């Protein structure tokens, strides 16, 4: 277990550091193992300081899940270029490091096991899903309009639901058994599948490392 070096900082930065320590604990030990004591040890602070920023373990767990989910939508907002490039790169980002790795899978598994029984986590999950899908709908609308294709809200919504399901499935396969696939194989499958759904070529994706720099 790696302890974080905690330092004096503005409140927003302190909260961020504590949430990152929480996510580290959950990835390593699951939700049950992510106690306030363990989070404090990981962050290099006292349990009292954690309670100063978060009223309970449940509160910091909820905030950690909200941050984790929000990062997916943030990546959609970071893609740049013309509509085709943005859509293509969005697909690549969601199937490569750091979105697709063992840590992401561990966090997903820990949280998703509780979404069905914890109303607060379920609400955060729904909010994140809608935000992610809305971002994808926007990318699709821009791309289809540029190509002179039908970019109606109903079509973009249906396509976003289908593409989101496709990405989820390939992401899960890559995280669980990445060694079974060739380099960029899942990305290529995703791109060709999306092209089949759209009926319009979207080209090859850029290397993820360049996108995340």
Description:
With 213 residues, this protein is mainly α. The protein folds into 2 domains: 1-54, Arc Repressor Mutant, subunit A; 66-212, Tetracycline Repressor, domain 2 (Orthogonal Bundle), CATH 1.10.357.10. It is built from 10 helices and no strands. It has helices spanning 11-33, 36-43, 47-53, 57-78, 83-93, 102-115, 119-146, 153-177, 185-198, 208-212. Helix 1 crosses helix 4 (57-78), helix 1 (11-33) packs across helix 6 and helix 5 runs antiparallel to helix 7 (119-146). The longest helix has 28 residues, at 119-146. The chain is elongated and about 60 Å long. The two termini are 27 Å apart.
Question: SS-based structural class?
Answer: mainly alpha
Q: What is the correct CATH architecture of the largest domain?
A: Orthogonal Bundle
Name the poorly predicted regions.
Answer: 205-213
Work out the number of β strands.
0
Taking the alpha carbons of the first and last residues, their distance comes to 27 Å
Q: CATH first level of the largest domain: which class?
A: Mainly Alpha
Number of helices: 10
Q: What is the count of distinct domains?
A: 2
Q: Beta-sheet strand percentage?
A: under 5%
Per CATH, the superfamily of the largest domain is: Tetracycline Repressor, domain 2
Q: Helical amount among residues, as a percent range? A: over 70%
Q: Average pLDDT value?
A: 88
CATH fold call of the largest domain: Tetracycline Repressor, domain 2
Strand count, sense and closure of the main sheet? none
Radius of gyration: 19 Å
């Amino acid at each position: 277990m790696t302890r974080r070096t905690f330092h004096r900082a503005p409140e927003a930065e302190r909260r961020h550091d504590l949430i990152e320590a929480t996510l580290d604990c959950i990835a390593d030990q699951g939700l049950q193992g992510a106690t306030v004591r363990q989070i404090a040890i990981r962050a290099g602070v006292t349990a009292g300081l954690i309670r100063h920023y978060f009223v309970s373990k449940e509160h910091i767990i909820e905030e950690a899940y909200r941050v984790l989910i929000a990062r997916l939508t943030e990546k959609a907002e970071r893609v740049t270029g013309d509509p085709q490039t943005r859509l293509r790169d969005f697909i690549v980002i969601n199937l490569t490091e750091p979105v697709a790795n063992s840590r992401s899978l561990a966090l997903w598994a820990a949280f998703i096991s509780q979404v069905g029984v914890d109303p607060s986590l379920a609400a955060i999950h729904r909010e994140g899903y809608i935000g992610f899908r809305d971002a994808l709908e926007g990318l699709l609308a821009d791309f289809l309009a540029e190509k002179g294709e039908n970019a109606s809200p109903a079509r973009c919504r249906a396509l976003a639901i289908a593409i989101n399901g496709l990405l989820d499935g390939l992401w899960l396969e890559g995280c669980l058994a990445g060694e079974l696939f060739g380099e960029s194989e899942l990305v290529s499958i995703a791109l060709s599948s999306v092209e089949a759904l759209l009926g319009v070529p979207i080209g090859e994706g850029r290397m993820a490392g360049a996108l995340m720099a």
